[in-house]
Design brief:
The chain is α+β, with helices and mostly antiparallel strands. The protein is built from 24 helices and 13 strands. The chain folds into 4 domains: 1-166, Beta Polymerase, domain 2; 169-247, Hydrophobic Seed Protein, CATH 1.10.110; 254-425, Hypothetical protein af1432; 432-483, no CATH class. The chain has helices spanning 4-16, 20-29, 39-46, 61-69, 119-124, 155-161, 170-176, 180-191, 197-205, 215-226, 232-240, 243-247, 249-252, 267-284, 293-301, 306-309, 322-336, 341-353, 367-377, 381-390, 397-421, 432-439, 445-461, 466-483, and strands at residues 34-37, 54-57, 75-79, 84-89, 92-98, 100-103, 112-115, 133-137, 141-144, 163-164, 194-195, 311-313, 316-318. It comes from Leucobacter triazinivorans.
Amino acid sequence: MRSLAESMQALRAIAASEPVATLAAAFAERGHEFALVGGPVRDALLGRPVTDLDFTTSARPHETREILESLTRSVWDVGRDFGTIAAQLRGESVEITTYRADTYRDDSRKPEVSYGDSIEGDLVRRDFTINALALMLPELRLVDVGTASASGAGGVEDLLAGVIRTPGAAEASFTDDPLRMLRAARFAAQLGFEVSADTQEAMVRLADRLDIVSAERVRDEFVKLLSTDDPISGIRLLVDTGLAERFLPELTALVTTQDDHGRHKDVYEHSLTVLRQAIALEAARGHDPSPDVVLRIAALLHDIGKPATRRFERGGVTFHHHDVVGAKLARRRLRELRFDNDTVKRVSRLVELHLRFFGYSDQQWTDAAVRRYVRDAGGELERLHILTRADVTTRNRRKAERLEHAYDDIERRIGELAEAEELAAVRPELDGARIMAILGIPPGPLVGRAYTYLLELRLDEGPIGAEAAEERLRSWWAEQASAH
């Protein structure tokens, strides 16, 4: 955390900027309290970049709207039921929320909202002391109500100590909004902080409370965690407190699944290592997008098929077909978390293909095998490169170097073949219309079989030209006829 003088200078700069100064003056003129609150204050004090500005006010939503409409024509409701009004002002988008307190009924998936009359009342109901900070504007008064926590420590003190705790009793806070337990894990990873012991204990006791939160909200918080620079500590916290069991039980099942008589890291530790290495490769290779949530989910879940396929054979442990089983499990779990179909498809495909390369290191593939590898990966080829490289966690340096060199070689060959053959768009020389014309058949399954034959021919032998393809197609067709 920067010095207090530097922090206050950063906050003054924000307060003096447009549209903040304009908003502060407008609300003050109408007799309403107005404050910069939460994350922006926290990040300014920590010396982190401040990107989004969150404001809170004593004004009710209709009053906020009236004030904003006096400043700009571009005003809209973000969540009127939650007291949030937005506007475009001086080229900036702003959101302003009325002092509030969110609570859940025991059987509700959505918080109930009631409005408050003081900044202290608003802050004390916020998730963590480090977010229960407000800069009152325009007077530049810092409000810190974190001393209501059991420890007596305020938000500024917890920022200095690198601690995440709730302003009041953790059980009351998590009962009000169970999603805060996932947010604790996310902030721990994002800021490199520790979650206080009493807060962790409450997370354990109330883990099943997460069940009332909608899958969409859980998904969004999980994605935010995975998008941090180093999500590992947050993931560990979710597993250790039992929260992961509530929405991603396949991950916790990895903890007791050993790879090889327990001589290797358990599959859970291996999966975390793969995730860490994938994130590092994401940066080293200049991968786009970054953070790549699809890649990171696939890295974390790539071995979730192992518990279901573990067998003890001839004194060893095997996990035959865990790639295929894992892909099915990933597909089902991501759908339950309401991920979009594209993400589900991409992650499950990566999980299914993550073992494909390892045969290459034992025996160099033919050009046909390389073409099939590229064809099967499709648009996920670059992600598959990263995932496969990240999946090497052996402590045997010689083996690790051999695998690295083997993958360097396959990437080189893919590049050479792609340059020579436009490998990324491998198709037969003859399309469906031409196949029907040559064979004199109507649309139907036979056309598909013929197309598949030509595609396999293209993968095995590379480009052979339309004339040769037609000749081979006629020969294949004759064989089909004689076989029947």
